Q: What sequence folds into this?
C-alpha cells in the first residue's frame, strides 16, 4: 500500500474517515483521475517562444525618457570578468593559508569547483552549513549541506527549529553571499573544512572562516589581486566594442554618464583600456573611484578628492566635478550639488544588491538596474525542452492537488492526494537536478522566490545578464514595462483565461487523449 504524504495524513486526521458520496463527486474524481492519466501520457511539451538571453527584465516600470544620467559600477558591471578569476582567487587564498597561517601543505592540491556553490546561498559560520532561504525566510529543505553531506529530517529540525531562518536570533554568524567575489572565498572555506574534518576530525568552522576572511581581505585591499589582474589583464577581461557602442548611444541621446566604483583608478584604467581602449574616459562625464559604497550614499561629511596624474589623491578642496578628471571618495550629497543632477532622473547599474543598489533606490530616489551574470545559465535552462516539460508536470500536479482536496475524506481523493504529492516531490527533485549547482536556481526555491530574488525585485527596477544588452533598446524613449503578476487572491476572479491556458484546457479531454495516444 502506498504511504500517504504528511499533508494527506493531517487532512485525514482532522476530518475523520466518514464521508458522503454522490454521482457528482464520483464524476468529478473520475475527471481528475482521467486528467492525471492524460498528463502522464502526454508527450514532452516544448514552447517555441523562447526567453531572450539578451533580454532586459522588468520589476517596475521604467521609462528611459525620464532618465538624464546613467551611472555604472565597474567590477562585474562594466567589467565582466572571465570565470578564471574565481579560480585565481581560490588559489591565492589556499597558498596564503599554507604560507602565512601554517595550514597543511596538502591543501595546495585543492581545486576550485564552480558547481559547489552559487550566489544567494546563506552560510552559517558557527556550524559550517550552507543553505538556501526563500523570500519568507523559510529554509529550502532540499538544499541544506554540511560540507558535502546533505542535512534533512530530524537533524535539520534540531539545527534550525521550524525550518526558518530567524536572522535576529542568529546574530552575525549567518550571512548571505551576494557578491561574486565571495564565491571562491566560501568555496575555499568549504574545501578546507572538508579536508581538516577528514584528516584530523577536530576543526571549528568559525576559526577557519576568520582565517580565510582575513586573508581574502588582504588579497583584495592589499593590492595583491589587483596587481595580478593588471599584469595578466588578457586572462580576465576581453575587448568589448559593443560596450562602447552602447555608451555612445546613450550619449548621442543627450544622457550623461558616470562611473562610481570602489576600485582604485589605476586598476579600472587598465581594465577599461582592455575592454574599450585608452580613450575610454571620453565616454564618461565623471569618474569616481574608491567611493567606499555603500557609505558613499549615507556618509555626507566625506569630501571628494581629485586623483593626480600619478594616481595619488590630492589634498585640495573640490568644489566641482569636471569631465576628464578623476575623483575618489566623496559622498552622494556633494555629487548632486556639484553636478546639479536630479536624483529622480539618475539610473545606476551594479551587480551587488546591498553595496550598489539598496541605498540609492531606498534613500536617494535613484532608479537602479542589476547585472546578474547567472541569468544566462538560468535562461538557457528554462529554454530547454526537458525543463519546460517538468515545469508543465509540476504545474499540473499543483492544480490537481489543489482541486482534489475539496473531496477529502473520500477514499479515492485521499489516495490521489497521497500519490500526487509523492509524484510532485519526485518532479521537484528532477527540476533541482537540472541546475549546474546542487542549490538549484538562485531566483526561486520550489514554489516561492528566494531571498536573493526578493532583494533583486526590491532594489532593482530592471535586471539583465550583461550591461551591453541595453544596446538592443532605444536608450532615449524605450519603456520597460513589467507583465502583470496576479496575486493569489486575484487568480480566480481576474485570471481565469490564464488558468485555463495553464491547465491546457484539460476539460476538453478528447483532443488531449488523441494527442497522448
A:
Amino acid at each position: 500500500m502506498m504511504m500517504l504524504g504528511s499533508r494527506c495524513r493531517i487532512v485525514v486526521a482532522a476530518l475523520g474517515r466518514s464521508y458522503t458520496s454522490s454521482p457528482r463527486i464520483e464524476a468529478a474524481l473520475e475527471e481528475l483521475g482521467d486528467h492525471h492519466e492524460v498528463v502522464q501520457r502526454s508527450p514532452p511539451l516544448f514552447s517555441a517562444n523562447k526567453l531572450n538571453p539578451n533580454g532586459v527584465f522588468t520589476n517596475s516600470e521604467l521609462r528611459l525618457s525620464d532618465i538624464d544620467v546613467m551611472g555604472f559600477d565597474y567590477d562585474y558591471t562594466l567589467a565582466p570578468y572571465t570565470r578564471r578569476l574565481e579560480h585565481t582567487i581560490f588559489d591565492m587564498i589556499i597558498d596564503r593559508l599554507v604560507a602565512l597561517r601554517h595550514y597543511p601543505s596538502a591543501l595546495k592540491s585543492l581545486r576550485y569547483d564552480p558547481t559547489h556553490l552559487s550566489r544567494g546561498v546563506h552560510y552559517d559560520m558557527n556550524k559550517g552549513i550552507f543553505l538556501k532561504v526563500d523570500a519568507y525566510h523559510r529554509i529550502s529543505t532540499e538544499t541544506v549541506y554540511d560540507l558535502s553531506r546533505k542535512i534533512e529530517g530530524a537533524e535539520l529540525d534540531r539545527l534550525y527549529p521550524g525550518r526558518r531562518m530567524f536572522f535576529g536570533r542568529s546574530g552575525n554568524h549567518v550571512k548571505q553571499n551576494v557578491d561574486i567575489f565571495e564565491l571562491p572565498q566560501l568555496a575555499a572555506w568549504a574545501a578546507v573544512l572538508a579536508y581538516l574534518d577528514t584528516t584530523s576530525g577536530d576543526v571549528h568552522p568559525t576559526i577557519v572562516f576568520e582565517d580565510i576572511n582575513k586573508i581574502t581581505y588582504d588579497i583584495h585591499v592589499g593590492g595583491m589581486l589587483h596587481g595580478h589582474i593588471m599584469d595578466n589583464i588578457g586572462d580576465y577581461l576581453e575587448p568589448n566594442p559593443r560596450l562602447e557602442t552602447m555608451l555612445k548611444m546613450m550619449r548621442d541621446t543627450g544622457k550623461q554618464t558616470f562611473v562610481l566604483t570602489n576600485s582604485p583608478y589605476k586598476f579600472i584604467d587598465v581594465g577599461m583600456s582592455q575592454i574599450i581602449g585608452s580613450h575610454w574616459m571620453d565616454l564618461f562625464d565623471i569618474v569616481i573611484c574608491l567611493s567606499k559604497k555603500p557609505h558613499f550614499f549615507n556618509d555626507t561629511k566625506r569630501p571628494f578628492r581629485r586623483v593626480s596624474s600619478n594616481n595619488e589623491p590630492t589634498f585640495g578642496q573640490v568644489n566641482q566635478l569636471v569631465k576628464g578628471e578623476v575623483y575618489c571618495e566623496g559622498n552622494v550629497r556633494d555629487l548632486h550639488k556639484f553636478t546639479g543632477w536630479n536624483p529622480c532622473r539618475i539610473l545606476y547599474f551594479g551587480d551587488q544588491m546591498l553595496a550598489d543598489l539598496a541605498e540609492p533606490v531606498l534613500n536617494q530616489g535613484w532608479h537602479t538596474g542589476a547585472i546578474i551574470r547567472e541569468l544566462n545559465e538560468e535562461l538557457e535552462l528554462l529554454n530547454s525542452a526537458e525543463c519546460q516539460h517538468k515545469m508543465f508536470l509540476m504545474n499540473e500536479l499543483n492544480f490537481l492537488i489543489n482541486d482534489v482536496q475539496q473531496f477529502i475524506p473520500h477514499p479515492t481523493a485521499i489516495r490521489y492526494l497521497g500519490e500526487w504529492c509523492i509524484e510532485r516531490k519526485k518532479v521537484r527533485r528532477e527540476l533541482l537536478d537540472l541546475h549546474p549547482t546542487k542549490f538549484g536556481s538562485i531566483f526561486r526555491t520550489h514554489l516561492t522566490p528566494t531571498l536573493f530574488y526578493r532583494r533583486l525585485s526590491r532594489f532593482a527596477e530592471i535586471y539583465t545578464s550583461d550591461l551591453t544588452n541595453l544596446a538592443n533598446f532605444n536608450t532615449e524613449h524605450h519603456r520597460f514595462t513589467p507583465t502583470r503578476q496576479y496575486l493569489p487572491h486575484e487568480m480566480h476572479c481576474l485570471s481565469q483565461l490564464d488558468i485555463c491556458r495553464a491547465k491546457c484546457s484539460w476539460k476538453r479531454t478528447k483532443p488531449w487523449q488523441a494527442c497522448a495516444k
In short: Residues 1-17, 505-517 have pLDDT under 50 and may be disordered. Residues 411-433 form the longest helix (23 residues). The first strand starts at residue 56 and ends at 58.
